[in-house]
Amino acid sequence: MILVTPLSAVEATIRRYRPSHLVTLLSPEHMIATPEGVDEARHLKLGLNDVSFVEDSEAPPAEHHIDQLLAFGRGWDASAPMLVHCWAGVSRSMAAAYTLLCDRLGPGSERDIALAIRLRAPHAWPNALMVRYADNILERRGRMVDAINDIGRGAIVIEGECVEFPLSLDEL
Hints:
The protein is α/β, with parallel strands linked by helices. It has helices at about 10-15, 65-75, 90-105, 110-120, 130-135, 145-150, and strands at about 1-5, 20-25, 45, 80-85, 165. It has one domain: Protein tyrosine phosphatase superfamily (Protein-Tyrosine Phosphatase, Chain A), CATH 3.90.190.
């Protein structure tokens, strides 16, 4: 499964679920060291700000971030969970989880995954720029973008909670 949490829940989530892989999506100036319980070689650190327009930041999401995320996800055998987090567990981490799930579950799954995200995480508001890059790289012809637009903005929260996403459409 893929777990999504805010930064504040990372250590407790590692203790509870013992993930084999960790994805950190934080602003470059707030990047964390690899937490205890995670192999440093299995910790992907993506330094990017949570913005939806490139011109709004000196460190916006970029295609190379999505390329790194996809390569990292494809190297994960899923024998143990993957933990994905950002500052609040609402935008960057939800976009990353959506990207990983769309890649793993294949073309045609975009809308079902987006609906599962909304059902499991009412607070989710996946980063639009990251989703746009992922849609392009995965050649989804706008289906990822459309599906996320269709679920709309999530409930406004300070931070999300730990959310579990199974790796099967039947279980999502």
